[in-house]
Amino acid sequence: MVQQIMDSLKEELPVFHTSLVLTGDVKIGLVLVDIVNGFCTVDAGNLAPTQLDKQISEMVDKLVRVARPFYDRKWPVFAFLDSHHPYIPEPPYPPHCIAGTNEAKLVPILQWLENEANVKLRRKDCIDGFLAFVEKEASNVFINWV
């Protein structure tokens, strides 16, 4: 049954697994989205897991393994950080990742990225990080980074 589902998905989705070799000749960047305590650290907030979650832990560990070569090679990294004003609700979600709190910080295992010149951390105050970075003159911080 599982194999049938996987075969069906492979037919419908244009996703192919191949090896990826990164060299200095390729322009490449890494984008991290909302890898913050408020979503990934046990009991760190209203939307954080209440107990150790294997999927979240494995995801964060994989992101660390992916981010490390970018750090080592000084390749660009852009990290969206969920960060909300305490008095502006974001329905249907409860208050979460309030600016200035531990919830809105990168998970501890990735905090080494915070002081790197090749890393751009941007706090977003809405669900859509792309829209969050539209500037008054209509430019977009993320598009400019890309």
TrEMBL record:
Signal sequence interval, chain numbering: none
Family membership noted in the UniProt record: Belongs to the isochorismatase family.
Protein name in UniProt: Isochorismatase-like domain-containing protein
One Pfam family cited in the UniProt record for this chain: Isochorismatase
Any one of the GO BP annotations: pyridine nucleotide salvage
PANTHER family hit by this protein: NICOTINAMIDASE 1 (PTHR47297:SF3), PTHR47297
GO molecular function, one term: nicotinamidase activity
Domain Isochorismatase-like residues, every copy: 30-130
